[in-house]
């Protein structure tokens, strides 16, 4: 295995992601589960309790995903979900995308 940063064979200290790309218009909103129960709405680059400053775009928009992450296109009436078998970090950094991180 390799990437632009060099050899990945040792897999030490590497984080791997899987990214799903769709044509859904999600309006910067995605949903993650709350310990496998309800879905919580997440809005990219937004915090309800303070003024958000975009310093670390990726890290600030990652959330724990216990068993599912969902994006919805309300105009089309379509949802796309990824169901996981263990906890991951997840986000939707671009409209229509879901990204899950797996630490090695």
UniProtKB/TrEMBL annotation:
SUPFAM superfamilies membership: Galactose mutarotase-like
Superkingdom classification of source: Eukaryota
Pfam families per the UniProt record, alphabetical: Glyco_hydro_38C
Entry-linked InterPro entries: Gal_mutarotase_sf_dom, Glyco_hydro_38_C, Glycosyl_Hydrlase_38
Molecular-function GO term, any one: carbohydrate binding
Domain (Glycosyl hydrolase family 38 C-terminal) ranges: 13-102
GO BP: mannose metabolic process
A GO CC annotation given for this chain: lysosome
Protein name: Glycosyl hydrolase family 38 C-terminal domain-containing protein
Organism, scientific name: Rhamnusium bicolor
